[in-house]
User: Which sequence fits this backbone?
């Protein structure tokens, strides 16, 4: 099986996911009591940077099927947004507010973006290169 | 290679998922003990049993089947997993958090709070493996099988990844069983 050389998207995505999950565990271990937010913010920032960097590197990769990537990512994003929404709801239901709510919400946003990137990359990496020359597809 | 017709996401299952999600939201909104306990225990037990069964029973059997038999099983089993696993995981977590809030288990003053946090860590580790490796492999295998000329090597590689990660999460589920029985018995 001849595989094209692609950036380590899965490894970086797993690291990003691990960091954001660690942040949510940290918040959950303290809530509903007072939570010092600095560790959760640091984990959120590191995870977000990895996610952005991962997508940026992937987008510049020659021969990667972006059309297939986006096709899969949009449905995965829908599914994981619902899951993240359910988790957000249960925290809202229990009166989480202020700084912890903001950090938690942003963490769930990063979670809901990271998983689709991992799924869509795993699918698209085994596809033939995009016939459109690897350009991002038009919004059809 | 003869591949049976299948849907990557079985549309017939979507209404069932919708009903479960509505039941979950209603149970959290009502904040009554029995519905929360029911959803958490049923979904959590399903998650644990499916992981253990896939990792230690179905996985090794699947690895020894002939390629046509493996494809037959894969195209029937894996689309169901695409809907089933995210649903049971979401229900277990959301109902579990509401239940622990109602019972006071997530307060740091709770006697066994350390065990509760340990369960978060185990679930977190399982989530990273399942969402980062297992679920993408599941979808990618099905997508590959939908192609006019699927690549057997890609399918083999992704199936191995699926089976090994299912085994890893199955092992971690043993830790979940230890923690949950400890919490239930006090």
Assistant:
């Amino acid at each position: 099986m001849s595989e094209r050389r692609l950036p380590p998207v899965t490894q970086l995505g797993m690291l990003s996911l691990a960091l954001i999950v660690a942040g949510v565990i940290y918040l959950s271990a303290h809530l509903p009591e007072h939570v010092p937010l600095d560790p959760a913010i640091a984990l959120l920032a590191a995870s977000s940077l990895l996610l952005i960097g991962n997508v940026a590197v992937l987008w510049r990769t020659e021969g990667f099927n972006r059309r297939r990537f986006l096709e899969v990512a949009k449905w995965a994003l829908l599914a994981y947004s619902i899951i993240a929404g359910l988790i957000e709801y249960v925290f809202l239901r229990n009166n989480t507010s202020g700084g912890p709510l903001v950090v938690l919400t942003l963490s769930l946003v990063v979670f809901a973006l990271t998983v689709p990137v991992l799924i869509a990359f795993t699918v698209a990496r085994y596809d033939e290169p995009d016939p459109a020359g690897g350009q991002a597809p038009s919004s059809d | 290679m003869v591949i049976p017709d299948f849907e990557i996401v079985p549309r017939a299952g979507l209404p069932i998922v919708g009903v479960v999600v509505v039941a979950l939201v209603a149970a959290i909104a009502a904040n009554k003990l029995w519905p929360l306990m029911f959803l958490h225990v049923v979904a959590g037990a399903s998650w644990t049993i499916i992981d253990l069964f896939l990792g230690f029973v179905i996985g090794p059997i699947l690895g020894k089947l002939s390629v046509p038999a493996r494809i037959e099983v894969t195209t029937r089993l894996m689309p169901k997993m695409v809907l089933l696993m995210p649903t049971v995981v979401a229900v277990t977590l959301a109902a579990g958090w509401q239940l622990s809030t109602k019972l006071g288990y997530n307060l740091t003053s709770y006697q066994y709070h350390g065990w509760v946090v340990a369960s978060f860590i185990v679930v977190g580790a399982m989530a990273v493996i399942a969402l980062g490796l297992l679920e993408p492999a599941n979808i990618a295998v099905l997508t590959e099988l939908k192609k006019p000329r699927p690549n057997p090597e890609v399918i083999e590689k992704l199936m191995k990844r699926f089976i090994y990660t299912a085994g890893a999460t199955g092992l971690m589920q043993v830790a979940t069983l230890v923690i949950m029985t400890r919490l239930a018995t006090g």
